[in-house]
Amino acid sequence: MCDNKTDVDTKTDYNPFEHRKVEKPSSDVRSTTNLIKASLGSGLLAGPLAFANAGWGVGIVGTLIIGIICGHCVHILVKTSRGCCKLEKKPLLGYAETAKSVFTNGPKKIRPYAKFAKIFSEFALVSTYVGVCCIYSVLISDSIKQLIDRYVPSVILPVEYYCLIILGPICLLCQVRYLKWLAVFSFLANIFLMLTYLICLYYIFGSEITLADKKIAGDPWRFPAFVSTVIFAMEGIGVVMPVENAMKKPQHFLGCPSVLVVAMTAIVFFYSTLGLFGYFRYGDVLRGSITLNLPLDDWPAICAKAFIALSIFFTYPLQFYVVFDIFKKHTDRYIKDDYRNVTEVFARIVGVGFCVGIGIALPLLEQIINIVGACFYSILGLIIPATLETVFRWEKLGKFKWILWKNLIIIIFGFGTLISGCTVTVMDIIEILNKKTV
């Protein structure tokens, strides 16, 4: 930093943890559950398709590297936020508030951009999690449609109709307001997801697996799609600050072992195993979610399709929490206490309706996943955290300024993912639309 104001060491007497007053704090277990569920979901089941794009050798190495990068970016974001709390003597800061604080207390030349940093961060958060909610709407609807088409053949409806059907139940579930209670739904979602994971492994190892036609390294042209999908599956960074801020013992979030280490280890393990063996079993015929490749005549497969729909359904309010939290921060001061509850209920319904509406307009599951991973999560989960740490530690970048070089590599990787991933995905969408018009 450039002056005494930004020297965290002079503020170490202020401990933000001692001043936090959380209405309904979450335990370490609940926080770990929320963090795992915020990342794992439809992205986990897209793992085999990601490996099909990259090849199994590149897929394993790439997943481990991306997992380490994503975990590191979460670590530096939380650590930077805590440093800003000490500087400003505030008990907690959200994602966007951290961005504003970093620039406000940073080098004098960039302080005028503090407000823009906050606005940009909030825009990235809202865009990312609206995209996630759209993906969840389509995935739930796809799973339900498969089951209905198979067992009630007299009722054949497009996936857009199923998006409308699930709108009501999702609106009801998204009325839950506290992370402590959302952890209960996250726990149920994790159970259903693990059951789906085990059923997928059952089908994967239920017959002979051939490796002869499986590629160690895939087409380089498809590698950006692999990176985008993995980033989508690994990242839950928008939920990180709300989870850490709501913890009963936030000091347990970082360190080793910690909530972050346990969560990221679990995420990398589940993703890499299902991605690797799913690709070995189904090869290049994989769809956006591996459950869509399972047979429709066996009860375990039927259960898997139902379980994943339930898992994503119970995860929906956790993702929507990020979107609504930003909306609430900007509107609360304009709403009278007498109308607060009614307004919040109505606003949640409108917000869910907007997210589902986009899902209806763009029901291309694989492509939406790639767009959200490449464009939004690369900005939110890679570029912004690396930038914030660099600015925050500008006067203390380490020997040979290694922090600066490390973060430059992360930022370049983020921009590379954004540009290449979006390019490949847009071309895929154009190809699909052209086929439909032929």
From TrEMBL:
<keyword id="KW-0812">Transmembrane</keyword>
<feature type="transmembrane region" description="Helical">
    <location>
        <begin position="54"/>
        <end position="78"/>
    </location>
</feature>
<feature type="transmembrane region" description="Helical">
    <location>
        <begin position="225"/>
        <end position="243"/>
    </location>
</feature>
<keyword id="KW-1133">Transmembrane helix</keyword>
<keyword id="KW-0472">Membrane</keyword>
<feature type="transmembrane region" description="Helical">
    <location>
        <begin position="368"/>
        <end position="388"/>
    </location>
</feature>
<dbReference type="Pfam" id="PF01490">
    <property type="entry name" value="Aa_trans"/>
</dbReference>
<protein>
    <submittedName>
        <fullName>Proton-coupled amino acid transporter 4</fullName>
    </submittedName>
</protein>
<feature type="transmembrane region" description="Helical">
    <location>
        <begin position="408"/>
        <end position="430"/>
    </location>
</feature>
<dbReference type="InterPro" id="IPR013057">
    <property type="entry name" value="AA_transpt_TM"/>
</dbReference>
<dbReference type="GO" id="GO:0015179">
    <property type="term" value="F:L-amino acid transmembrane transporter activity"/>
</dbReference>
<feature type="transmembrane region" description="Helical">
    <location>
        <begin position="151"/>
        <end position="174"/>
    </location>
</feature>
<dbReference type="GO" id="GO:0005774">
    <property type="term" value="C:vacuolar membrane"/>
</dbReference>
<feature type="transmembrane region" description="Helical">
    <location>
        <begin position="181"/>
        <end position="205"/>
    </location>
</feature>
<feature type="transmembrane region" description="Helical">
    <location>
        <begin position="119"/>
        <end position="139"/>
    </location>
</feature>
<feature type="transmembrane region" description="Helical">
    <location>
        <begin position="255"/>
        <end position="279"/>
    </location>
</feature>
<feature type="domain" description="Amino acid transporter transmembrane">
    <location>
        <begin position="26"/>
        <end position="426"/>
    </location>
</feature>
<feature type="transmembrane region" description="Helical">
    <location>
        <begin position="345"/>
        <end position="362"/>
    </location>
</feature>
<feature type="transmembrane region" description="Helical">
    <location>
        <begin position="299"/>
        <end position="324"/>
    </location>
</feature>
